[in-house]
Amino acid sequence: MSLSSIAKIDRRYLYVLLFIFVTLPLLYPLKLPIPIGEHAKRVYSKTEDLAAGSIVIESFDFGPSTRPENFPQAKAHLFHVRERGMKVVALAFWPSGAPIGEDALRQVYGSDFPNIPEYGTEVVYLGYVPGAEVGMQTFADNTATAKGTDHYGTAIGSLPLMQQCQSAADFDLWAEWASGTPGEQQVIQFVQGRHGGPSAVPIVVGSTAVSVPGMMPFYLTGQIYGILNGLAGAGEYEFLLSIDYGYTYAQGPSLDAQSVGHVLILLFIIIGNIGYLLTRSKGGKS
Amino acid sequence: MSLVVKRYIPLVITFIMGIIMVIATYFLAPGTPERDATTLLTGAVDVIVATAGVIGLIVLLRHHGVNISRRGKYWKYSTITIIGVILYLIVGLYGVATQGRYLMLASEHFAWVYNTIYTSMDATIFSLLAFFIASAAYRAFRLRSLESSILLFVGALMLLGRAPIGGATWSGFPDISTWLLNVPNAAGNRAITIGIAIGAILLAIRQLMGVERGYLGPERS
């Protein structure tokens, strides 16, 4: 096979190669060091700076498709918030995010959740809040109007934490775990923008890597305080937590697989271009 | 149905509701009784969405039912769609009936279907993207022109900068990728965002004024 014919290689060979190269590091981790970026550091420092007893909204606005990226971000942040003694109001504006949110809470607060002593005073799970961005707006204006009961059918009025969390004026931090619409831009527009701006409702976001470029204008203006960028962001946050709180840094093998996958794609690109340039130098059509 | 019912009444409702929301957003402070009144109004969206959901279900069943009865294109997929919708509906309603749950999502039967079927399928479909992206990158990232060459080099830098192997190879890769995100990418995205926002404002004004009537369906059916 000549180099120029490489440009026309059957894509199924690429699929097989990618599968093998992504699987191997999962089985035999390379243990590559993880660089900590400024975006993740800002999420961490913002959470560290909040006082114990602050009310944090944890919004699970993603589905199973992006769970590998969003879930470890949300779980690590939830752990951080609990360790710092903050109060959590968790919810989902995506119906498919509601079971995932419950899973994260169970992994952090224990498998008996919501049958734990601190439920209702330290943590509440509202589950799915309907209405998408309108639901966000309603929740920020008046939490009880947006959702009359929690995920388990308990009236919100009977939960002490929800009496302290009646509107956006009571939110100390909004942690948005998002992979689409409604997501961080709707929180900026319908919650932060209508209730005093970034200083009144600070927002930190965990998102899929593919969505992060679109968030940068909001990050640079301070509307988004910090970002966990995809799987790497989750790994960075876990690593920071592992230093201060002994949290398990579990994303190593996944990030190794991602690293190898990226290098393989780069190799594909280089080989494809060699083939393309050789074909073009011979006057052929690529 | 008369023109008044089909056209004029929806236009008047749109105008009144739109003006109320504009006033609430720009002129009423949070926490005032007037603002709280509009919050109740936005809560009514849930009722409208729920009604639309039922209509959507009927339309979906009708569309695929007709396709099956006529043995139309991909009618077998239509069968799977109908079976899926009905089964999930039954499971949800069964959960509510037997567990007395307020919400379907909290029912363990509903959760079982979600965790064992929906999650697996959704994750699988999304995971396939990795293979398509690898293949597409191989074919699309070519040194054809100056623009495509810039795209290629920036893409390569981002690939290295956003994975640990980039930082392990050279500590500059993560910094470069962060700079690319913070500066050129933000500039382009800001322009796009502002453009979309201006377009959305204009569209909203046109809808409020009754100039843009596309959301009402075709003028003559």
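Residues 252-281 of chain A form the longest helix (30 residues).
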